[in-house]
Specification:
The complex is a heterodimer of chains A (355) and B (329).
Chain A: H1 2-15, H2 19-28, H3 33-42, H4 49-52, H5 57-70, H6 74-87, H7 95-106, H8 109-125, H9 129-145, H10 149-162, H11 170-184, H12 187-201, H13 206-222, H14 229-232, H15 245-260, H16 264-277, H17 282-295, H18 322-326, H19 335-339, H20 343-348
Chain B: E1 5-10, H1 14-22, E2 29-35, H2 39-48, E3 53-55, H3 58-62, E4 68-71, H4 78-86, E5 92-95, H5 102-115, E6 119-122, H6 129-137, E7 143-151, H7 168-171, H8 179-191, E8 195-203, E9 206-207, E10 218-225, E11 228-235, E12 251-258, E13 262-266, E14 269-272, E15 275-279, H9 284-301, H10 307-310, H11 312-327
Classes of the chains: A mainly alpha (355), B alpha/beta (329).
């Protein structure tokens, strides 16, 4: 009975995306080793060797896939998720989301979309609300990058509302919705979402704060404003984020701002800082490198990305999102970065990223 | 002696004229008199339908000894004349939506009840043979996904000037309240009530977020009822289509996946696992005629407690929830 209660408790936390509570529960309660191992794998937490012995191959492969993904090693991540999918067992569930995230990062947006549309009906059948929220969030990200902001907004809204009231990570979701509204031109509403995101994150969710401010800075630049978020939100920026991506984006935005103010040395310095932030993220790095080359009048190098043969799901039976299956994103991707020859083209290329 | 139910028509615009065209297929009904404020329309209808008495006021219409009234006015017109309509003291078949908002819908129902005037909302799709056949097919099946769409195929923007539909005060709403009403009602008819999860309303590329904003040309809802997930998509335009005069494809369908089969139904028929299982020869006018006959039947048997009557408010409630979700986002 104790085991059943523990699984029930953890499942409830997972359904709300409340990873902190899962971790706390696993650390504080006397629960069996296999359930602890399974729970930690579900929240992508580090596993001991003993714990890995208790998990199935597909679950281990997915765990390794996420670890590689967060480290920016998309080749490895792709191999792990592919292996989890091909195992074709109950534990393969979720590998599609992993593959979709990898393909998004590599510019294979059609494949990414197909995997999410493949995973969603299963998540619905299993009443797995957090998986649905993750899939809709990932789908929104692809539509955003591929320039379908209305669909992106719909997906982010679905991700937000499908979760029960009081779920975790709301501040992130407000940021996502703001991104979509910036692209649709609903900039006032976008600012309101960013305000809500900042308000909810406060100083506790520091990564989200940096994501909000990066989006706000890009929005102001888009509106031809020359204000810097540094001036108004200094206290938020005292603490560095745990992940370097939003710091990179904010520095890129500041680099564009400095360039606009004809302060090229500062623009170069900021772009260099962004480059360091993007060490593990190939396309963001390629974008920044090109910006630096243009700022320094250096010859442009073509950003290389190691090609991966995209895998597609065998069969997708998704009725709810069926029109999106027909939406062809195969011509999309990061090609505009490779083709960019000017500052203006690099400015436009920001739309390929989740900002 | 003619024993047909004698109906009067209030409003002879596009919707009112659909009733006039459909009447020839009715078994139990005769539209004997009609009223509209526009002299141009009065003249046109008078020449096209010489058997119908065209009147110039509601008072003249009331003098026609009517068994029931069909109400086909623009959404905002009822508020002012509602008491005059109730004074007819007869059953009312009111074109959907029941009200511009839930408050108005409840007001109409409550006041009509006090006056002893049964009120029935005209929602023709329930009477359509395809959807009736589909409902029968779904018996004892577990539905996992339902997707309903209605694309009107219009090129005109709802915010074009000088139309009552373009103003939220007069229309009450756009694609959600108008064509969306049909889809919500049809979904209720097929699977019962569902809970709303998310709603997105757009006026072109502009997000609708406040009551004062323009009227929506697109409404997209996500909902669920237990393990059945529902998506509803109502658009004034639709998919781009080079062959269409408007540039948009007119389209309507309900698609359903059950644990065993898949279905598609529209006004032409029903398909099961991509194979046709029902073909519908009956056109739209006959579905409207069926509805008028059902209304007549309710009048004859004084039968005002059937599902059509009881299901009028839930559709309005769902629409209200969707607007509320969007307006308070």
């Amino acid at each position: 009975m104790q085991t059943i209660n523990a699984v029930n408790r953890i499942t409830q936390y997972l359904m709300l995306g409340d990873f902190d509570s899962v971790k706390r529960f696993c650390n504080s309660e006397n629960i069996s080793d296999d359930i602890t191992a399974w729970s930690l794998a579900k929240i992508y937490a580090p596993l001991t060797d003993a714990q890995t012995q208790l998990l199935s191959e597909p679950i281990l492969a997915q765990h390794a896939g996420w670890c590689s993904y967060h480290a920016g090693d998309y080749d490895k991540s792709h191999d792990f998720f592919t292996s989890a999918y091909r195992a074709n067992t109950e534990d393969s569930y979720g590998a599609g989301l992993g593959l979709a995230k990898v393909y998004t990062r590599l510019g294979h947006w059609e494949a990414a979309k197909q995997w999410l549309l493949y995973e969603l009906p299963t998540a619905r059948q299993q009443n797995d609300l957090f998986m649905q929220a993750q899939c809709y969030g990932a789908l929104g990200e692809i539509f955003l990058r591929a320039n379908y902001p209305k669909l992106a907004y719909e997906c982010f809204g679905n991700a937000f509302h499908v979760l029960p009231k009081g779920s975790s990570q709301r501040e992130k979701q407000y940021n996502y919705q703001a991104s979509a509204l910036i692209r649709t031109g609903n900039t006032e509403q976008a600012e309101q979402y960013l305000m809500s995101a900042l308000y909810l994150a406060d100083n506790k969710q520091i990564d989200s704060v940096w994501h909000s401010l990066a989006r706000l800075q890009f929005l102001w630049l888009q509106q031809q404003k020359t204000d810097s978020v540094k001036t108004y939100y200094t206290e938020y920026l005292q603490q560095k984020p745990n992940i370097s991506i939003p710091e990179g984006f904010l520095n890129i935005a500041w680099a564009f701002l400095a360039e606009k103010q004809q302060n090229k040395p500062e623009a170069i310095q900021l772009a260099n800082h962004a480059l360091n932030c993007f060490n593990d993220f190939s396309m963001e790095r390629a974008w920044t490198l090109k910006l630096l080359q243009i700022l320094k009048h250096e010859p442009l190098t073509i950003a290389g990305i190691k090609p991966i043969q995209a895998l597609f799901p065998e069969q997708t039976s998704n009725l709810i999102e069926s029109p999106w299956l027909k939406l062809d994103l195969s011509e999309q991707g990061f090609a505009p970065i490779q083709a960019a020859q000017s500052l203006e083209q690099l400015w436009q290329a920001r739309l390929l990223f989740f900002i | 002696m003619d024993t047909k139910i004698r109906l009067g028509l209030v409003g002879m615009g596009n919707q009112g004229q659909e009733y006039l065209r459909a009447e020839k297929y009715c078994q139990q009904v005769k539209i004997i008199a009609a009223y509209d404020t526009s002299p141009t329309i009065q003249q046109k209808i008078s020449s096209n339908y010489p058997d119908i008495t065209i009147v110039e006021s509601l008072v003249q219409l009331q003098a026609q000894r009517l068994d029931g009234l069909i109400l086909a006015l623009p959404h905002h017109c009822y508020d002012e004349i509602w008491q005059e309509l109730l004074a007819f003291n007869c059953p009312l078949l009111k074109e959907k939506p029941l009200g511009r908002n839930i408050k108005e819908a409840q007001h109409f129902i409550n006041t009509a009840k006090e006056q002893g005037c049964p009120i029935q909302t005209a929602i023709q799709r329930r009477q359509h043979p395809s959807y009736i056949f589909l409902k029968d097919q779904l018996k004892n099946q577990t539905i996992t996904e339902l997707r309903a769409h209605l694309h009107l195929g219009f090129a005109i923007e709802l915010d074009s000037p000088n139309t009552w539909r373009s103003d939220r005060k007069t229309s009450g709403g756009g694609a959600l309240l108008d064509s969306g009403y049909h889809l919500i009602d049809l979904t209720h008819y097929l699977i019962g009530q569902f809970e709303l999860i998310n709603a997105c309303l757009w006026d072109g590329d502009k997000l609708i977020q406040a009551e004062s904003d323009s009227v929506e040309s697109e409404a997209i809802l996500l909902g669920r009822q237990g393990s059945t997930w529902v998506k509803i998509e109502s658009k004034v335009s639709g998919e781009a289509c080079a062959n269409s005069k408007t540039g948009y494809k007119k389209s309507e369908a309900i698609e359903i996946v059950t644990t065993e089969n898949s279905y598609l139904a529209n006004r032409e028929g029903v398909w099961k696992n991509n194979q046709p299982i029902f073909h519908c020869q009956r056109d739209w006018e006959k579905a409207i005629a069926q509805q008028i006959d059902d209304f007549a039947n309710n009048i004859t048997h004084n039968h005002w407690n059937n599902r059509i009557i009881w299901d009028q408010l839930p559709a309005m409630q769902m629409i209200e929830r969707a607007y509320s979700l969007v307006f308070t986002a």
